[in-house]
Amino acid sequence: MQSADYRDSGLDFGRDFVFGSATASYQIEGAVAEDGRGPSIWDTFSHTPGKVWNGDTGDVACDHYHRVEEDLDLMQRLGLESYRFSIAWPRIQPTGTGEANEAGLAFYDRLVDGLLARGIRPIATLYHWDLPQALEDAGGWTSRDTSFAFAEYARIVGERLGDRVSVWTTLNEPWCSAYLGYGSGAHAPGHTDGAEALAAVHHLNLAHGLAVRALREVVTNDPEFSITLNLHVVRPDGPTGAEAARRIEGLANRVFLDPMLRGTYPADVMEDTAAVTDWSFVHDGDLELIHQPVDLIGVNYYSTVTVRMWDGSGEKVVADGHKDMGGTAWPGADGVEFLQQPGPYTAMGWNIDPSGLEDLLVSLHEQFPDTPLMVTENGAAFDDEVVDGGDGPRVHDAERIDYLRRHFTAAHRAMARGVDLRGYQVWSLMDNFEWGYGYSKRFGIVRVDYETLERIPKDSALWYAELIRTRRIPG
């Protein structure tokens, strides 16, 4: 019998379901100026006063670059079946173009070989936001040249790792790269221009299509090709809610899904944003390039939003879950109000609503029934406390265990409704640099002591190891 609060136990995921965890290069690797790596936009952004909490940077992060063997052993001890990591473009091409940096490729060689030696499937993301600074200086994602540079980078990496990687993901959350990077100013490079944000949307879409095409030409095994999207679960409120939801779903979801999976841009989004841009950056033939066959859609899910049209009276509420840095993540939707969500909340201030994950997975399955899905990120930041466990430090993170249990239950319910869900990558393997929040927010199932860099598996890691071992949600 299903519980109303999604706190089910004993649910069986079967032998083919793939349990793993995920990280991103700038958030964990450190070693930002070693072995030929060039600067990225996040190096520049984090070193700019006022952009990141406490002036934190990813210079050292979790020092994964030097501790990769230790981290691989940790993954093996937890029983991970897959590991979703991202490749740092400026490690491969320090300026984003030109010859490959052998030391950078060699690092990912070691990582992939280490995963395979431990029976862990490598899931490689080509881009998790660390654009080479030299490309940003030339226009970044507002320039179509960056899309073609990305395809060449994909080709280089595919030629090197394309006999061993099991899943290739082109981009992680292009919504964040475009709208938070060029619209709201909350992410690198920190611009606040709606027209730039929409140009970035298109050039990221184009980069995805070009990269899939390039990878298919060079890989020699039989991998799956994918894109990871942070699709928004939008709840309408009141008589104007439907119109507000249409606008936000267009900007957040359909502007990516439609060109990638249907080969068109949604006409209503182009109409909604006509006062922001004329979309002349879309060239003849671009949609055909974007619309490449994919084997998997990666789904990142954390929370929901509730919207209505602002009536113009009082102060507009913009509780969309993102830092206010002066711009807007919603070009052409100035009239939409984001209402405060009911709790409980994570340490990020995001509401906890596992029904949103079930609804999102079912909706995607209904729209694209022939395309399998994978949860590529789901997890929560809480204010963890380290205690003496008698035999060493421990973290009793009951809130995170509860969060994961409820969201795994939501995923299981979606599968029971016919969704072809192939796996689940918990965010994140370890505490790390949380972008604009620096080291103030901890998402990991493994704690990182940022002074000693010691790794401490939290109770949630032990809970997850039990889930993987038994294939059932622990009681």
Main sheet specs: 8 strands, parallel, barrel
Number of helical runs?
15
How much helicity do the residues have?
A: 25-40%
The whole-number mean of residue pLDDT values reads 97
Work out the number of β strands: 15
Sketch the topology as an H/E string, one letter per element: EHHHEHHEHHEHHEEHHHEEEHEEEHEEEH
Look at the helices and sheets and give the structural class.
alpha/beta
Estimate what percentage of residues fall within beta strands.
15-25%
Task: Note down, in words, how this protein is organized.
The model has no long low-confidence stretch (mean pLDDT 97). This protein has an 8-stranded parallel beta barrel, surrounded by 4 helices. A 3-stranded mixed β-sheet has the order 6-8-9. It has 15 helices and 15 strands. Helix 7 (144-161) packs parallel to helix 9 and helix 9 runs parallel beside helix 10 (241-261). It is an alpha/beta fold and 475 residues long. The chain has helices spanning 25-28, 41-46, 68-78, 89-92, 102-117, 133-137, 144-161, 174-184, 194-218, 241-261, 267-272, 286-290, 354-367, 398-416, 459-470, and strands at residues 18-22, 82-86, 121-127, 167-172, 224-229, 233-236, 296-300, 304-309, 336-339, 373-378, 386-388, 393-395, 421-427, 446-448, 455-457.
